[in-house]
């Protein structure tokens, strides 16, 4: 029996040299892909998440189609919060809705406990099935929403642009805010560790909407809780810490922790990595909008990012946010190939 | 006859010492204010913009109510583009709509010429009336949308979150893009100079949506055009160059020009100013969401910003974006007073 092949994605998380720059894409499984749309024609979104065989199949679709260097669990960040009792519903087209948003200290106290194993057994089963199928060929990334992003959904009642309720709640009910964030941090850490126990080899913490906050608010209201999630992750498992609109927050996100910092396209990878320090790995950072243009333009932009990373160990190629649903699959495939080609060492 | 009193806002634009930190607020005239809502009950939005007496009255409302250090012209950034013939309409609640969005080189060629004096005589008349009423007591700030923000409306057909059409157009029709931006830059410079001729003593260039771009895209697709607008402004009149989500773009915006850089709350004013250099003034940068909390919280946050500026000449206090419509007027008034009090030298 031979030793398992080293996996470039995990090597890059540890800032070890790799034969080429590993690449995966946020929302690499999704509506832009015909085989995903075929699955969605047969299953509702929630049903898909809750049916491990189907969710594992969706998890693996981009591996077959794109040649990426990792699979990422297919799931939704809010599912683990269903037991809180806030009336979570997935509306058609409109994304998640929370029917009883959390707007006061009393609302926080009223939240029911979350037993992760009972809340999302289907997620852990999906992880097991996907990992089994992947074997030692490719790593499986688990993920969860970070406490702020989860809290903002609970407080706003859905997606938001301005996060006015959240910003008010933080300041007007500081201790309830920290109580809520503390609970979400505990659930998130248990959830990620459950995915790791089921077979995930790395995890990404999505703080997708954090870019709405000032650095000073991040420091007071978010940093301690993101730090406690990351500190609680099973030792040895790389954590990717990601947000968008974070150009002013990255040094603080770094303080909160993570082996890899996810960058969006609003920063230049080269100088940003230099400023953050080369003792942290970075992931990113192509504007997903560029995938809608042409292969030539995608190559130009990808080459610029690779040049910024300068072949330094510890760069994972990714988009700065998820693949848009209007994206041609051929462009995504071409991106993966060209990243491999252009970065081959 | 005595010499006119020095105006702190204009002094700050020139980085001269002022007796206190001057303050004005983006969207200081707007729906949050009962006297504005009363005007809107009598006039449709477009009618209000096109009726100089009414628009001048709205321009002056916050001066009386808030004690700010400047008035800013009440107008809409797209009005000057009406002659282009793209079918601009202001829909109720939904903001501006462009019925024939610009999506190709042919669409750009089809755009009709804009004669600024004929397009927006009512704006210049509003400026004259407002300036007359203000006399030498307070300065009047004129404004315009920057070429990118105008182009994105024309291309997307309205407000957007992802700007996918714009990002595609830039790359797939580079020469049409630069032709469009060049035309918008010319119109914008003429428009601002027209406001200056009518009495505006400073102008703000709003590149509100620029934060959707990567630094590299900004450099190629935007910087030359914003620079040409700023370079064409009547000498001696301060230009405030503003955008949101610009943490990664500020050094490039600085390169494009402006006597004052507008900062949003996603950066810390102190270290950001230091990095940009003290040979440029800065404006900002309170999160407008904080105005919905409490006077105590507003004071804490305002004090932090003033501490970041450290009394250095060349800071204009403002929000990081416009006043939200749900904001209590008392909070806005309290902010203006406390900025004056806390910064009194």
Summary of the model, kept short:
Chain A contains 15 helices and nine strands.
Structure description:
- The structure is a homodimer of 345-residue chains.
- The first copy, chain A, has a 7-stranded parallel β-sheet with strand order 1-4-5-6-7-8-9.
- Helix content of chain A is 48%, strand content 12%.
- Chain A is built from 15 helices and 9 strands.
- The first copy, chain A, has helices at 8-13, 34-42, 45-50, 52-66, 105-110, 116-119, 121-134, 147-156, 164-172, 174-198, 215-231, 250-256, 269-276, 295-309, 329-343; strands spanning 71-72, 88-91, 95-98, 140-145, 202-207, 239-243, 260-262, 281-286, 315-319.
- In chain A, 54% of the residues are buried.
- The mean pLDDT of chain A is 96.
- With 345 residues, chain A is an alpha/beta fold.
- The longest helix of chain A is centred in the middle third of the chain and has 25 residues, at 174-198.
- In chain A, helix 7 (121-134) runs parallel beside helix 10 (174-198) and helix 8 (147-156) packs across helix 10 (174-198).
- The first copy, chain A, has one domain (8-343): TIM Barrel, CATH 3.20.20.
Mean pLDDT of chain A: 96
Question: End-to-end span of chain A in angstroms?
Answer: 28 Å
CATH class of chain A: Alpha Beta
Count the strands of chain A? 9
Domain unit count of chain A: 1
Q: In one word, what is the shape of chain A?
A: globular
Outline the biggest β-sheet of chain A. 7 strands, parallel
Spatial order of strands in the largest sheet of chain A = 1-4-5-6-7-8-9
Q: Total number of helical segments of chain A?
A: 15
Helix content of chain A: 40-55%
The share of residues in extended strands of chain A comes to: 5-15%
Radius of gyration of chain A, whole Å:
19 Å
Low-confidence stretches of chain A: none
Give the largest interface. Answer: A-B, 34 and 34 residues
**Oligomeric state of this protein:** homodimer
Secondary-structure element sequence of chain A?
HHHHEEEHHHEHHHEHEHEHEHEH
Structural class of chain A: alpha/beta
Indicate the CATH architecture of chain A.
Answer: Alpha-Beta Barrel
